[in-house]
Amino acid sequence: LHHHNGPMMILRRSWNGLVGRRIAPSSPSSSSWHPLLSTSGSKRNDTMIAASWLCRSRQYSSGSGSSNFNVRSGERMKVAIVGGGVSGLSTALHLAPLVAQGLIDGPIDIYDSGSQDREIGVGVWNTAIDPFKKSDRESHQHVCDALQRHGTQVRDVGYRTPNGKWLAQSSLGGGDLPSLLFLREMDLVSSLREAVQMEQAQGLVNLKVGDDSNVQGIYEQSTEPWSASIHYSNGKPSEREYHLIVATDGMNSKIRKLYGGHLLQRQHISGTAALPGPMDLPTTKDSSASSSMSSVEQGQSEATGTQDREYTVFRGNSMLTTEESGLDVSFQTWGEGRSQRFAVVPMKMSDEDGSGGQTERQVWFITISDDQITSETDPMKRRTKLLEAFSDWHDPIRQIVEATPPDKILMERALAHKYCMIPVTNFNQVIHRVHGGRQPSSAEVTAGDGPAIVFVGDSFMTIDPILAQGFTIGMEGAAALAGSLNTSLRLPASADFPSLAFDPHALRDGLNSRHEMRLDRLICLLRATELVQALGQPRTGTFLGMISRDIIRPLMGIAPDFVKTPVFNAMMKYSLGLPPQQQ
Asked: What's the predicted TM-score (pTM) here?
């Protein structure tokens, strides 16, 4: 801080940004500097360092907030969200207050090509719900109330061996431990959609469905310096041009495949892939500087594509009640080869007749690597083969699976991305490199970088489903994006671009800073995923599988609870990116 003209000057500039005073920044350099690591002495970086410090030192609340922000002259930022699933709806809800405060030009357009609302039970950790709880906004409170009404809090959990022996037990939601809510996927989506409709009634959000919602890409020949329209599958362009496009369109995101992975710098992260070696993750450090970037045009499909995790996941809602199953605790049973694992969570779901009653179900999943089971096309025969593979495992595993209709058992191959996607802050450069296009003629257009693109949820990175944190990561990312925009859009507008009410460079610095902070959270989950897979879902014939079966598990069996329970709790918290001791 002292290197940048002293802390008082930095705080003064930050305060000027918050109250809306214009300060003409120095001309932006050709490089996109990281706001925390830059050693540049420019005024713009001074302000961004102070803004990043302020953002880190306070909890962002996306509620109603204070009175509307002092709206500046010029065009406010327009936002499009591509994808109407959990991540897209959560993003719209967290950004809606910024529209109400005049920071974003409303409405926020959500392009929903048709999300899949399934009856299967899913888990959402409190880290995804807490930003809604901390908000006093009516739509956010509706989300909290609806989730609690539809869901079941998971309390006692345990880990077992195939013969039924308990390895460890714990209780969630107590003390400083995180809490886990289980509910049907369709209830999660409907709770968020109802809240979005509340914002839509106020003109802050516009949920688009039908022909004009199936986004195929971004209009690459736009003559606007900092924005572009999107185009649909029917060839029509959108009526509005957007400065920020949020891709929440899932693992097979079209936006990710078209515009992600072209320009990146790899960062070696240890401990994120035990088998076969460390995983490389992109970093935003100097991501637009040609001297520090490596072109991955030849491997762009690999950078944006998925990788097979070499096992299959079967999931179902068993018809057994808690009393019939004899369950009084949720548990996981760790296998000893073939990537076998079983888990079950008791869940109560609301009756569809609107009577207010609830029906008990046992939400379970099985993982296994067995081609004979996955190649079977008949649901009844496939369930029989699945039961045969777990025939010597303890009760009530067989009873739970048998009480699930064969045609209701979902089968999904475990897929994941190898790379997360950094924000695309240099759209024009990407298009020029790929197609040789986007060569505007006017000076102001040439100075622009096109629309910024940020990825949230599975489009950011689809992670191995072993810890089932996909929805949690997406909802967390939506809240983090709102926090970043809440800071960067309050900074002084740029005198270099008088037509805009915001600084497009500050927007990009904020998106990159958000990515770096989210990367810390992601690394925790990746490391925990690899550890749990090695210990609880080992592949046949692997060294780590042998260590888990012959050394670690016997030691766990004789270790007292006061030793092993804190270890499991710490790993659970670490996977969520939580500190060892929460205040």
From this structure: 0.83
